[in-house]
Design brief:
This protein has twelve helices and 15 strands. It has two domains: 170 residues, Aminopeptidase, CATH 3.40.630; 197 residues, Gcn5-related N-acetyltransferase (GNAT) (Aminopeptidase, 3-Layer(aba) Sandwich). Strands 1, 2, 3, 4, 5, 8, 9, 10, 11, 12, 13, 14 and 15 form a 13-stranded mixed beta sheet that branches. It has a two-stranded antiparallel ribbon with strand order 6-7. The longest helix is centred in the last third of the chain and has 22 residues. It is globular and about 70 Å long.
Length: 385
């Protein structure tokens, strides 16, 4: 550990953002099970001209330097939509955030967190929440359990030391996010099979795949259900129209119709479940690099994913059906359809469900009923400023 002075620099502009992203990539490369992501995608996420998140957020990026080296990074940001939420939903007035946290040692971590907190206080914030990088819909939380295996698509990976350093800086855990591992080669328990079969006999229920020929309309259906279904959840921030359009464009290449389902009741969409082939498998093989030949391998795999494990990042049922038997029945039916297609058509052997809030008893009960088990935990921390 160096004893040199730590200097925190404010970072901005195209070159500064590239330096910020590349520093994060260098930290990720040190971790055995980290998966290198596409640099172009990472640059886009931190570009205010490209990511619509910045349309309702202010931010500042920081890099820590010591002995003429970049030794850590952090973002401080304020989501104006989050400020409008009730405090009981985890955010609300006075809540700022930090994210993109990487540090070489505890001294660097302490200096970065202190500078992010200072910036948030200067903006009138009274509470810090994080890491959230940068939207709750991107990579929320710090990996605190599950470092012994690689993450799936759109999930972060962090060394165990980070949690200790954040807690030593005065943060306590606000929320835990869980992911569940499911063996898709095994049939469901008898009770779940009976629930699915009962739903299949119900003429009011239709489980259908998404239709990419009318992709814009399907995206609107899914996100309208999501905005309703998750509206009372901890940390929920609704998608804006610009974010809906952006998400639709970014997700379309990885969407396979037969593993993404919409549930209709009397002809009305009331639930959905999204499933992504785990592109991290290919990104690890090509080391996150499109050139010279990575782009060919990635595009070929995206056209027809093979030996592809799956991640279910999002599902939702309209709030009017919450706490009803029908809600869980629709979930089991969508999971059953997706599991059968994932195993038979893509050679999937396992799937990851989540993240799921640790107090979402309904979703945890569904995960338990299909005999999945927690394989990763992410923590979001808080601190009064």
């Amino acid at each position: 550990m160096s004893s040199g002075q730590i200097v925190i620099e404010e970072i901005g502009g195209k070159k500064g953002r590239a330096r910020f992203v590349d520093l994060g990539r260098s930290f990720a490369a040190r971790e055995q099970h980290s998966v290198p992501q596409l640099r172009s995608e990472q640059l886009e996420l931190v570009d205010p001209d490209k990511n619509p998140f910045f349309g309702h957020a202010s931010h500042q990026f920081f890099i820590a330097r010591r002995d003429s080296r970049d030794v850590g990074r952090i973002s401080a940001h304020i989501d104006r939509l989050a400020l409008e939420l009730p405090a009981e939903q985890g955010m609300g007035p006075g809540t700022g955030m930090f994210g993109y946290f990487d540090a070489e040692d505890e001294g660097v971590a302490k200096a970065l967190l202190a500078r992010a907190e200072e910036w948030l206080r200067e903006q009138g914030m009274t509470r810090a929440l994080g890491p959230i990088s940068m939207s709750v819909w991107e990579e929320p939380g710090l990996l605190v359990s599950g470092q012994d295996h690689s993450p799936m698509i759109m999930m972060g990976h962090h060394p165990a030391d980070y949690a200790h350093w954040i807690e030593a800086a005065g943060y306590d855990r606000a929320k835990t996010l869980l992911t569940y591992d499911l063996d898709v080669t095994q049939d469901f328990p008898p009770l779940v099979r009976r629930i699915v079969q009962s739903g299949e006999r119900n003429d009011r229920i239709r489980i259908r795949p998404v239709d990419k020929s009318r992709w814009a309309q399907e995206v609107e259906i899914v996100l309208a259900i999501l905005n309703d279904a998750w509206s009372k959840n901890w940390g929920f921030v609704p998608f804006t129209p610009d974010e809906i359009a952006y998400a639709g464009k970014k997700l379309k290449p990885i969407i396979r119709e037969d593993i993404n389902m919409i549930a209709e009741l009397d002809g009305r969409p009331v639930a959905f479940m999204l499933t992504f082939p785990d592109v991290n498998r290919v990104l690890k093989d090509i080391d996150g690099k499109l050139f010279p030949f990575g782009w060919f391998r990635l595009l070929r795999w995206l056209r027809k994913p093979t030996a592809a494990d799956m991640r279910v990042p999002l599902m939702g049922v309209l709030r009017e059906l919450h706490n009803s038997r029908l809600a869980s029945q629709l979930a089991f039916m969508m999971i059953s359809n997706i599991r059968d297609n994932a195993a038979s058509r893509y050679g999937a052997q396992r799937a990851e469900i989540g993240w799921i809030l640790d107090d979402n008893q309904g979703m945890k009960a569904i995960a338990d009923a299909i005999e999945s088990s927690v394989n990763r935990e992410y923590a979001i921390y808080r601190k009064r400023l």
